[in-house]
Amino acid sequence: MLYTAPIDDIMFDLEHLSGWSEVGALPRYAGVELEDIRAALEACGRFCSEVVAPLGVAGDEAGAHLDAGRVSLPEGYAAAYGQFVEMGWQSLAHGPEHGGMGLPRAAGAAATEIVNAADTSFGLCPLLTDGAIDALTKNGSPAQKALYLEKLVSGQWSGTMNLTEPQAGSDLGRIRCRAEPGADGSYAISGTKIFITYGEHELSENIIHLVLARTPGAPEGPKGLSLFVVPKFLPDAAGNPGRRNAVTCSGLEHKLGVRASPTAVLNFEGATGYLVGEEMRGLPYMFVMMSTARFAVGVQGVAVADRAHQHALAYAEERVQGRAVDGSSAEAVAIARHPDVRRMLLRMRALTEGGRALAMATAGWLDLAEHGAETERAAAGAMAEFLVPLVKGFASERAVEVASLGVQVHGGMGFIEETGVARFYRDARILPIYEGTTAIQANDLLGRKVQRDGGATARRFAALVRETVAALRGGDMAAQAVAGRLERAAADFEASLAHLLETAPADANAAYAGSVPFLMLTGNLAVGWQLARSLLAAAARQAAGEDSAFLRRKIATARFFAEHVLIDSAAERLRIIEGAPSLLEADL
Amino acid sequence: MLYTAPIDDIMFDLEHLSGWSEVGALPRYAGVELEDIRAALEACGRFCSEVVAPLGVAGDEAGAHLDAGRVSLPEGYAAAYGQFVEMGWQSLAHGPEHGGMGLPRAAGAAATEIVNAADTSFGLCPLLTDGAIDALTKNGSPAQKALYLEKLVSGQWSGTMNLTEPQAGSDLGRIRCRAEPGADGSYAISGTKIFITYGEHELSENIIHLVLARTPGAPEGPKGLSLFVVPKFLPDAAGNPGRRNAVTCSGLEHKLGVRASPTAVLNFEGATGYLVGEEMRGLPYMFVMMSTARFAVGVQGVAVADRAHQHALAYAEERVQGRAVDGSSAEAVAIARHPDVRRMLLRMRALTEGGRALAMATAGWLDLAEHGAETERAAAGAMAEFLVPLVKGFASERAVEVASLGVQVHGGMGFIEETGVARFYRDARILPIYEGTTAIQANDLLGRKVQRDGGATARRFAALVRETVAALRGGDMAAQAVAGRLERAAADFEASLAHLLETAPADANAAYAGSVPFLMLTGNLAVGWQLARSLLAAAARQAAGEDSAFLRRKIATARFFAEHVLIDSAAERLRIIEGAPSLLEADL
To answer: Which of B110, B101, B107 is nearest to B34 (CA)?
Structure first.
């Protein structure tokens, strides 16, 4: 089997969780109907199943290769990318003013999931282009927008993010790359960047590198960084790729996973770069791209998890092995009938659909923050910013777990590369690392998203969760069961929040010792909340007379998550509130 | 860095946790002193660090290859294996009556750990030989013992376990391999076995396959299986390798990890086999080998985890990135100073040392069961059998987690194969699968080790844990803290046990829906118990005037485990007692 895009689940989330009643009513999306979105995603899904997914296994085996500065990708990649551009999938959620289809963020997230589920190595190229588009849309000059955006939105040109240097990984303040101003207003960029995803390749006609570098006399640390656009080919007068710029690829990494994607060492040797916005403001500008990419990496987590779940479910329903433990069959049965295999499959589904639900809900807030009524943007933006590290942190960590369970469901066959599920386990492992490790997401959550506003957004989040708890109280037995677990988890969150807000100013080490447990607690709660909302929406549709296996599954998933995953919040609370001394006082 | 054998921790466990006061007093080990064991393990550790560990990276890259029926292993393997045999490491814990060094099981477990930490692919060969030795020691005829044991104990010959067939994985009752009796008392073995670890290679002079097959007229299912010895080369009159037997290797698997170890498809085409014991009793005989191998796979988990921890700790103390969160340094610091990196490193250590502690304690019971006073063997054996699925289940699952954390500590570098830690993540993934998946261990625990004796052994286990709780109550603050957590976990275990004993007869599905959570709860409790015992032993040595960083670390590890890992028992209890309906009623 290959891959089937989960259109029904995506559309359910889009309609019921992503704030469609508000987002769909925005002037920005006037005329966009749910059926338009479904049609676009179905077409994208067909393309990805038929054209992209078949690239995966052979692509992983072949890998990307560097030969005399040129990067070759696995067979079929160039043709598939050409079709991807031609069909307009890069443009799906970008503005019509730059040639985009103009669908909402949630539809864009769905498309990102579908492409990355089909082949994560392939999906990384458009993922970074999306980030470059957002960074230039927000901070580029009118001339830069005119020159670059249409070609990036179409996918004709692709984008990259150039942060990391050998001494500067999570610590961007250590970036050394230099930018010397020239007479013509451009800058000469010099230095080495590493781990540059799709830093060199020939899928797109041009590559637009967004590069953090330091101008002469700029202060040390993160505040001395400026952002530059450094095209692989300098656009000529007509805006077409012209002279080759002085940026070369000197190496590709040999990686555990996403092996068909080129991860480049780039040498900038006096390359021509163009300043974005003002000098020294590079880091905040780059945060736009990073935030887009972080959200998208969370979505990649959903993608890899869904793929792993699809394979595991199909295998478990086919593989016959062992008699039923309840003696209900004298013959061996499909392993999906064994309780522990059910446990693994349901856990995989709950974590996958949960991550998707959270991502889709977050996409709604992102749209309201960008296109909503002027008076509501700040509040929507604060909520979106609170949720992005959860999407990234939760879905990427869970992708590793789900992919690992997918191998386990396959037993010995899972360990054989030809089965194809070991690849998901390898691919997933980068997700909690790139675009900011889980600890970086946790620091972002605790420092920027919680401490900075004194916990106001966090408390608003908890209040929204409690509104859902109240709504569940009016429901049936399954809703009641979920209400109890969700309320308990909300209380664990609130107690942890109060503790961290009190502790952090006086004893930062003690607070940050609990930062990742807090991220996981909050991520679990946010996901449990969204799945509880999906239970309510499914129950409402049932009450309106709709009866389907799909709705029953949605309710079962929410309940399983509450009773098997959400209950971890009590232990996280103990780690956060009582765990710091044993963590900080031990010798390593 | 490569690898340093953790001799101090091993000897601490051997002295304080493995029942040395009783085991060392057995007639079997008369004359064996702790210092002898330390000397042997130190020499084994040096050999493994200097000779075996350097094989790992290149060996993983090169892999095992099949060419015209012959298997070639990576360069250096043959020479290293030759030295391994010459130095006697295979024989370390085997009986002097067959040429062994005659050290106790705990020393054997330590040697298994050391070899497998140095290179898991290499370690698999002696691991299976150990199992074959135990199976033949217990069930072989005097002539078979005379013919095979000395050569297996020396490592001159190696052993394999032939269970799996394409349609028969976890479900051994589906084995189809046939054994036709011949006129001379031998049998002609025909069929195909897959996933045979070290099924073909030329490290050893001969390979002794232990094969489950079905004699003519034998009933269907597991009760129709018989066990055969099928040598690659039939021993001649002098007992030396003679004529090639009709068993050939027709393929090697392309695996996610342990890639230097050959995993063979073996075709038996009327191969000459010799019955072990009686016909139809093959499965119980094979269980001896399986039990030895399951314990050893748990030890492999400790090995891979320790290796991952050693690398992560070294990297974290060297890699400088980011300022201290408490503002104590204006400069960037080694990442080991960041609270979340400490959290990961301490978690890695606690899970690693915890797994080792449990394995060493279990080894003590295994020795008492085999060599103890006649009257005490049954009770010791029951406890050992209760603990073996925990060693296998806990340490193998935790190895995956620890190896994954090891990648995470390295950040982006962890994803690059040359860094060397992605290999541990790949290698670890087989451990919860082979020699019985985690679900199989959980079924074994709940079915054979708990239900069969009505929970008697499980209650004895809980009583022993409570003895340790009582001892901790008399200790200092750290001991008190651990006592509270351990007591709570013991209560969660007892409640879960009572629930499962009551539920299983009436509703097997509901009970087995909680089997893996029960395995993990019990494994965590068993490990927390052993680490608590190590805290008491360390505190006693401190009270006696010994002051060392090593003892402080042992105490800190026990406390960290109790406060960060053991606390998961409450959620496991909820899964076991309340989680079955949401698991069983959902549509997949």
So the answer is: B107
Q: pLDDT tens track of chain A, all 588 residues?
A: 689 999 999 999 999 999 999 999 999 999 999 999 999 999 999 999 999 999 988 999 999 999 999 999 999 999 999 999 999 999 999 999 999 999 999 999 999 999 999 999 999 999 999 999 999 999 999 999 999 999 999 999 999 999 999 999 889 999 999 999 999 999 999 999 999 999 999 999 999 999 999 999 999 999 999 999 999 999 999 999 999 999 999 999 999 999 999 999 999 999 999 999 999 999 999 999 999 999 999 999 999 999 999 999 999 999 999 999 999 988 899 999 999 999 999 999 999 999 999 999 999 999 999 999 999 999 999 999 999 999 999 999 999 999 999 999 999 999 999 999 999 999 999 999 999 999 999 999 999 999 999 999 999 999 999 999 999 999 999 999 999 999 999 999 999 999 999 999 999 999 999 999 999 999 999 999 999 999 999 999 999 999 999 999 999 999 999 999 999 999 999 999 999 999 999 999
Picking from A437, A413, A66, A76, the residue whose alpha carbon sits closest to that of residue A254 is A66
Q: Tokens 């008392």 appear where?
A: B185
> Which residue out of B583, B584, B585, B587 would a mutagenesis test of the A interface target, given it has the greatest number of A Cβ atoms within 10 Å?
B583
CA A558 to chain centre: 22
- Residues with Cβ within 8 Å of B238's Cβ and at least 6 positions away in sequence, in order, are none
Q: Choose from A409, A582, A584, A585 for mutation: most chain B CBs within 10 A.
A: A582
Decide if A556 contacts B587 (C-beta within 8 A).
Answer: yes
Which residue of B lies nearest to A330 if distances are taken between CA atoms? B221
Give the side-chain half-sphere CA count within 13 A for A65: 9
User: Which of A115, A129, A128 lies closest to A52 in space, CA to CA?
Assistant: A115
Find out whether A84 and A155 touch, Cβ atoms under 8 Å: yes
CA of A480 vs chain B CAs: smallest distance (Å)? 13
Q: What is the pLDDT of residues B325-377, one digit of tens each?
A: 999 988 999 999 999 999 999 999 999 999 999 999 999 999 999 999 999 99
Asked if A557's CB is within 8 angstroms of B321's CB, the reply is no
Q: Where are the beta strands (DSSP E) in B340-498?
A: none
Contacts of B376 (CB under 8 A, 6+ apart): B368
Query: B346, A586: Cβ pair inside 8 Å?
Result: yes
Whether residue B114 contacts residue B41, with contact meaning beta carbons closer than 8 Å, is answered with yes
Cα–Cα distance measured from residue A500 to residue B246, given in angstroms and rounded to the nearest whole number: 69
Answer whether A417 sits within 8 Å of B338, measured CB to CB.
Answer: no
Compute the nearest-CA separation of A458 from chain B (Å).
21
Q: What are the backbone dihedrals phi and psi of residue A360, each rounded to the nearest 5 degrees, phi first? A: -65, -40
In the set A435, A487, A494, A578, the catalytic residue is A435
Query: Do the Cβ atoms of B254 and A416 come within 8 Å?
Result: yes
The model's pTM is 0.98
Active site residue B435: yes
Catalytic residue among B113, B200, B353, B435: B435
Q: At what angle do helices A515-543 and B339-371 cross, to 10 degrees?
A: 90
Q: Please tell me the distance from the alpha carbon of residue B145 to that of residue B149, in angstroms, as a whole number.
A: 5
Distance from C-alpha of A55 to C-alpha of A78, rounded to nearest angstrom? 11
- Relative to beta strand B157-162, strand B206-214 is parallel
- Who's near A378: CB < 8 A, 6+ residues apart? none
Cβ neighbours for B464, distance < 8 A, ≥ 6 positions apart: B529
Structural element, H or E, at residue A402:
helix A377-409
> Which residues, including other chains, have CB under 8 Å from residue B436's CB and lie 6 or more apart?
B170, B290, B294, B392, B444
d(CA B471, CA B469): 5
